[in-house]
Amino acid sequence: MESSVALLNFDGSYKKQTFYQTYPYEWIELESMENTSLLCEKETLKDISNKIIGQKRSTIYFLGSGNYHYVSHVLQSNIKKPYSLILFDHHTDTLPSPSNDLISCGSWVLDSLNTLPMLKKVCMIGVSEDAPNHIPNSIHNKVKFLTEDSLQSNLAIIIKSILNYIPTDSVYISIDKDVLHPEDALTGWDHGTMRLKQMLKMLQVLFRNKDVIGLDICGEYPVTPTNENQREIRTIIGKNNHTNDILLRYVKRWMYRKSNFQQMLHA
């Protein structure tokens, strides 16, 4: 059965794109919710969770700007079996939240490790060189990171290292496009140097060797009514639309092949 694509509409960013229109997709409307950018009260997070749960269950989620990356925590909260998080991101997102009542785009991985019992390990790929400074001692034994400079070495060795680290059969993949080189995507944050082709090779190996139980993508450029018609902004939207199209096309292809293979095994 083909999985549909869910588009979270916090900021209207996907209304300017077309990459999803050739696939089954659904909108989850969240624009009316206040105070959700960057920081989110946990009571509001419950409302977001209820909105997502109330929709038809999807496997692939597009979250919008990286300001809403914390929604990945919600998407993983109902996983019922041990799994590892594979995080493609230029930031670790393990900073302490400013309050116990808040979750943020910079704290959600730390919150997930502290509150999601099925999450066993996190593998961060493409983080900045100062990543070790942002990982609290309390979770060091649950985190492996590959910095952007380390990704310049042999890709086969890198992929083997990732697979050797993952202790679970199941993985959840979360992608923030700020991990990519600016030639492949543009976000509202500082960027890494990973190329899209490099990311696709790593993703392909993960799909071949692991049970991918969910995937989300964020990292849209913030577009407002005052800038959406500027030539530069239209170019950025086009670039991100193209990258989203490539990611979605390959992910759905790998999911389809894995599903067919599993059906053959159980025929």
Briefly say what this structure is.
By secondary structure, the protein is of the alpha/beta class. The chain is built from 6 helices and 10 strands.
How does this structure look, described?
The chain is of the alpha/beta class and 267 residues long. The chain has one domain: Arginase, Chain A (3-Layer(aba) Sandwich), CATH 3.40.800.10. The chain has 6 helices and 10 strands. The protein has helices at residues 42-54, 71-76, 108-115, 155-165, 196-209, 231-265, and strands spanning 5-9, 25-29, 39-41, 60-64, 83-88, 102-104, 119-127, 143-147, 170-176, 211-218. The strands form 2 sheets. The protein has an 8-stranded parallel sheet with strand order 2-1-4-10-9-5-7-8, with helices on both faces. A two-stranded antiparallel sheet has the order 3-6. Helix 5 packs parallel to helix 6. The two termini are 15 Å apart.
Distance between the termini: 15 Å
Element-by-element helix/strand order: EEEHEHEEHEEHEHEH
Task: Output mean pLDDT.
Answer: 93
How many β-strands, per DSSP?
A: 10
For CATH, the homologous superfamily is named as: Ureohydrolase domain
The CATH architecture assignment turns out to be 3-Layer(aba) Sandwich
Shape type: globular
Q: Cα-atom Rg, whole angstroms?
A: 18 Å
**Beta fraction of the residues?**
15-25%
Spatial arrangement of strands, main beta sheet: 2-1-4-10-9-5-7-8
Q: List the domain count as a whole number.
A: 1
Biggest sheet architecture: 8 strands, parallel
Helicity range: 25-40%
Low-confidence stretches: 263-267
- Strand pairing plus helix content: what structural class? alpha/beta
The number of distinct helices, counting runs of at least 4 residues, comes to 6
What's the CATH C level? Alpha Beta
The CATH topology is given as Arginase, Chain A
Organism: Oceanobacillus caeni
Protein name: Arginase
Family: Belongs to the arginase family.
Pfam families: Arginase (PF00491)
